[in-house]
Amino acid sequence: MKIAPGIHRLGPGLVNSYLLEESGEITIIDAGAPGYWNDLPAELAAMGRSMTDIRALVLTHAHIDHVGFAERLRSERRVPVSVHELDAKMARGEAKPQNQKMLGIGLAALRFITFALSKGMLRATPIAEVATFGDGATLDVPGAPRVIHVPGHSEGSAALHIPAQGALFVGDAFATLNVLSGKTGPQLAPFGSDLPRARESLAKLERLDAALVLPGHGQPWTGGLAEAVRRIREGAPPH
Q1: Which of 103, 124, 185, 204 holds its CA 20 to 30 A away from the CA of 175?
Q2: Domain count of the chain?
Q3: How far apart are the first and last CA of the chain?
């Protein structure tokens, strides 16, 4: 699905993987669900590109619904995979998410579970080799995203800012859909290791210039980062 010039999305909006194009080369941001592998060639073709144009896969964090087809892309296509240094062990399968909390379970959870089953999300495939990055790095991949470390959802959660396109890939720093309750609009993602810290990390995003905000779950947000953060803070439960 085309989101903006040079940006496409895999998936219906429950679990998002993005394709970012610059000068005919592709960076994939998050690998979503394993089943998206089958959707990848057609989405690339819609961009006038093919598998041979993929240069990098960058993970906003290493949870199961973001690593998706990462190892298959790395092993079969020799595409390098990178993740924040604090999530590298999780990406390699050497550590598991810690202290996971859940927000708002409702009937929408059944839809998410059905989707997860259909797309092979029952178990993460460890990524045998990952490169790492730190806060503030500008990555040498198509699009040249700048890393903003936003811990809370996971220790190594990162947002990726593309100033040239006015876009920000926030991963699960916040969502516009709670896949468990069905609630829409800017909100903390429904899973997280340290929800108070995730709220604190929003301060690193609210002054960024990004007209297009692309979350890991839900539809794009175009109402401004400051407004998104305001809504999340006003809707936040007490600590």
Answers
A1: 124
A2: 1
A3: 38
